[in-house]
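Most newcomers find our protein records easier to grasp once they have seen one. To make this concrete, we reproduce a full record directly below:

…
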Amino acid sequence: MPTQADIKKKTVHEAIVDLMANIGKVAKDGVNAQQGYRFVGIDQITELVQPKLAEFGLTVVTRVVDYDIRDREGVNSANKPTFLQFATATVQYTITGPDGSSIDSVVVGHASDYADKAMNKALAAAAKYFFKQNFWIVTGDNEDADNITYDQAPPQRAQQGAPRQAQAQSNFGAAVEARAATVKNQAAPASAPAQQTGEVKPASGAQIKAINATRNNPAVEWAEQQVFDYVSTSLGRQIGSLEELTMSEASEVIKHLNKIVKGVN
């Protein structure tokens, strides 16, 4: 076993190597009650890593670089109207070694919640993947992008020159319809695509490729559904595939994804 004097001479990189050589696999002890799958929780990873950080003289300091919180209307499992809160947190972790040397790691966490815990979950997700990816902790989670393939029938495009109709986001009844009427009468935000004047052009193939390339960037790692959620919360329209985006909407999505990449790199 190394002495305390030996440990104090280690750089942050040397201490991380020592930690990785003395850390084991984390079992998937968490269980999702709704979908029934098993997962590795942040508490399990913290319980494993925290003593090792202290043993090898490593400290971790957290700083939230950027965050975003949005609400989206929906219905819960009892078919009751509710709001689902989405949160995205860009977090910087500074790892300092025994000799005072340090390195920074920036991670993006994304989560949703029916109450006020979306940001808590986003921060927990960021911390979980910070530890997993910086210390290469084996968890047995099969989260490889090549593990799942989504098959979808090609969407029906609107006729050339015909205005695209915004899809209804929910049918909550009279209360939600009244709210929707109020929103409709308000001025549209600057980022919303024009629906009433001129020809609405569908997203180009180059834009779709750019969205897919950027959302699969290691700095982003968004599932396709997260793009749909962003379009719904930010642009006010529900879509079922990227091909349903207008050119203006696709441009807004690309800008947002690039913003996340720039915040990480």
